[in-house]
Amino acid sequence: MLRKFALTGLLTLLMAVILACGAAATPTPQPEATAPPAATATPVPTQPPATATPAPTPATGSADLQSVAAQLAGGPGAIYVGDLNQLVGPVPEPIADDIGDYDGVPYEGLEDYMYVFDSDYYRLLLERANYTNPTEVTTTGMELSYQFACINRALTHCKLSEWWSDQVFERTNGQLKIEIIGYPELGIAGPDVLELLANGTLSFAELPAAYTAGDLPAMDMKYLWGMYKDNETFYKATTAAIPDLDRLIEDRTGGGITIYQLWRVPENEIFFFSKEPIEELADFQGLKVRSFGGALSDMIDGMGSEAQWVAFSEVYTALERGILDGGVTGANAAYGQRWYEVADYMAGPLPLFTVENATFNADVWAELPEDFRQVLIEEGAKYELEFFRVTPILSQLGIPKLLDQGMTYTPFNDEIRDFLFEEVALKRVIPQWVNRIGGPDTEAVRLFNKNIGPVAGITINPDGSASLTNP
Q1: pLDDT in tens, 55-102
Q2: Phi/psi zone of residue 54: left (φ > 0), alpha (ψ -120 to 50 degrees), beta?
Q3: Between 401 and 381, the higher pLDDT residue
Q4: What sections of 142-271 are H helices per DSSP?
Q5: Which of 261, 258, 253, 262 has the alpha carbon at shortest distance from 359?
Q6: CA proximity to 180, closest of 198, 207, 153, 203
Q7: Distance separating alpha carbons of residues 421 and 36, to the nearest angstrom
Q8: Cis-peptide, bond into residue 349, ω within 30° of zero
Q9: Sorting pLDDT into bands at 50, 70 and 90, what band is 190?
């Protein structure tokens, strides 16, 4: 591609000289792109920038970035700078078992996510990853080790964090090791994770909004179930809200630093799993359904079921013993926990394309050498870029894997979808969230109306009700 552009430039210059002078001329050769220059030490920020000037659009990325993309093409770490074919190839080893019979990321499906690859947020990640001038590690003689508390090591985003930690270990010359460990191994359930991070019990942790919203209710704006009718809208609203949501986490944790986002992508769309089929609106009535957050409970109750708080690791047993009639989670998560052995049916989906914070304790972050901090930020951006690369394949796997185990899937009909949006999301989920956060005159509502509302087409009114922006 670069040679084609160089040749075109040469011909254009030659013709211009001929026309102007009436004689042939020998144009000055244009240099081809070279590999990225040797890394040099640069001033290091102490945290990821909340906002940044977007990098050039992928189709016109710098020659150095194009060169990097060509070098990374065809496997883990590949990036999009105008050519989707470069994203095709194997996935990182820790998630190889999650992709079933696929050899890697196929071209098919990538085009469905052009709204991601062409987004300002994707370009910001390319800039933050600092591909063309990676931070030089000058620190020596350190042996640092931390645990990253991820919600469950069986989930894809936790497995991919192992790939990320390997890159950090290599970039720091073996001086910074981060072990991925699940909440169950640590004996934590989740609702207290914000406080555990703030007081230093945890050094580095995933902060799932559905859990942390009990402590910081504003986080539930990520999960106002039933509000989004498709994943693209969900993604755009999420990326608009990320800087303010990160700031709220930083404030609550006394300076905790989010170094990357753990994406909940369409492979993890939310479904109702049940012992009996859910085919009509009436089938929701009276079911005892596992919930994992306040807004989700509002949605479940609004559908006519009874929300029950049960830890993720305990749902299988609760379904097996009849304590629950059903549960709500993502397709791959249900597969990983073998819910197909204790529930025969699934219905849905509820769109999902949002994030959780991967956040360091403030004191731990401050103690890290500055070059290590920048490496963590750069590799965190690469984690997100890689998750987007594998999203098209992950999104095709959840339902088929469960069907292969004998589950029956029933997509929501129009009656259920309309009821979910008009009666449940607008009239119950959003207003009750407003009540939990202290009313409409709060920062959280202002942030909703600033970031999420314009994308979703919904406004929270001065009386706390929700309405369509353009009915």
Answers
A1: 444 444 689 999 999 999 999 999 999 999 999 999 999 999 887 777
A2: beta
A3: 381
A4: 156-171, 183-186, 193-198, 209-212, 231-252
A5: 258
A6: 153
A7: 49
A8: yes
A9: confident
